[in-house]
Amino acid sequence: MKINNFIIVPYEKIGDLSFGESRIEIRKKYPEYEEFRKTPFSQNTTDAYGDCHLGYNLNNELESVETFPGVSVTIYGNEISKNKKYSEVKSFLMKMDPEIQEDECGLTSFKLGIGIYLEKNDGCNNDIQSIIIFCKGYYD
Known about the structure:
This protein is mainly β and 140 residues long. It folds into two domains: 5-67, no CATH class; 85-130, no CATH class. The chain is 13% helix and 35% strand. The strands form two sheets. Strands 4-5-6-7-13-12-11-10 form an eight-stranded antiparallel beta sheet, covered by helices on one side. The protein is globular, with a radius of gyration of 14 Å.
């Protein structure tokens, strides 16, 4: 997948990928992927498309998109990825969701369906390792 720009509509879609869309339909649009199991405990496989990973539920419906550095991710007209530091993104997201949950690995906004991952959240102005955009119920 050579998509370098994703626009998020929380809990609906990211770019032209809709949550709940079938793996078969996505693979028709984007036939060049590598299927793998993210962890030994993963209930389903993930499709890797270069700088993003697509996660599916047991019905093979899209439930998450994880992006890595180099991919532009925008929400409500604001870029939250390329060349942005964690503190900037956190500050922006907290304006929309003051109930963000933060831990040693980054943050999660259940209101916006977004997670920001760091190698280590030590309070410094760390680089973002990845951004996950997820559907309702993903963490249930």
